[in-house]
Design goal:
Number of helices: 8
CATH architecture of the largest domain: Orthogonal Bundle
Distance between the termini: 48 Å
Largest sheet: 2 strands, antiparallel
CATH class of the largest domain: Mainly Alpha
Low-confidence stretches: 1-19
Shape: extended
């Protein structure tokens, strides 16, 4: 379904508003189409809350919702139902799986921390730096004060990667 705004002339190429919701409204989208659009888009990357929970699971190796809740740093505190919801979202995204242990579900990371880091960096490079790792590194070097030890490690890594 195209959401192009009509300019009144069939021969002209379609134009898009800057806001997709405006496109939907002006093109007479149904209520159901508008509700579907307004539902939050699912992101493959981790939100801050998801990352907090994944950090616990990576550290512990596995855990029930209650165990994860107990191990979470308290700022800001999360409710049991919030942790359960976030873990279910992580399961839907493929970051965790569960096994049944008597009456409880035990959640286990399916993605290790290093793979998640690589995915997030790849996403960042793609989204903000046009798939240029060079631009990312230049940005870091220009914007951050890097101490001599970090710079030496970076030089060593660059030399080894040749």
């Amino acid at each position: 379904m195209g959401y192009a705004l009509s300019l009144g002339q069939a021969s002209q190429s379609p134009r898009f508003a800057t806001n997709k919701l405006v496109d939907l409204l002006e093109n007479g989208a149904s209520y159901l189409e508008r509700v579907k659009f307004l539902a939050r888009n699912k992101s493959a990357t981790l939100t801050e809350a998801e990352l907090r929970i994944m950090n616990v699971l990576w550290e512990k190796g596995s855990g029930t919702v209650h165990e994860v809740l107990e191990a979470l740093p308290g700022d800001p505190p999360l409710a049991y139902n919030s942790v359960l919801t976030i873990i279910r979202i992580l399961e839907t995204k493929g970051y965790v799986k569960h096994v049944k242990d008597k009456r409880a579900h035990v959640y286990i990371p399916k993605v290790d921390r290093d793979d998640a880091r690589r995915f997030e960096v790849s996403h960042l490079v793609s989204r903000f730096f046009g798939n240029s790792h060079e631009q990312l590194l230049l940005n870091i070097l220009e914007e951050q004060s890097i101490d001599a030890d970090e710079l030496a490690r970076l030089r060593e890594l660059l030399e080894r990667s040749k």
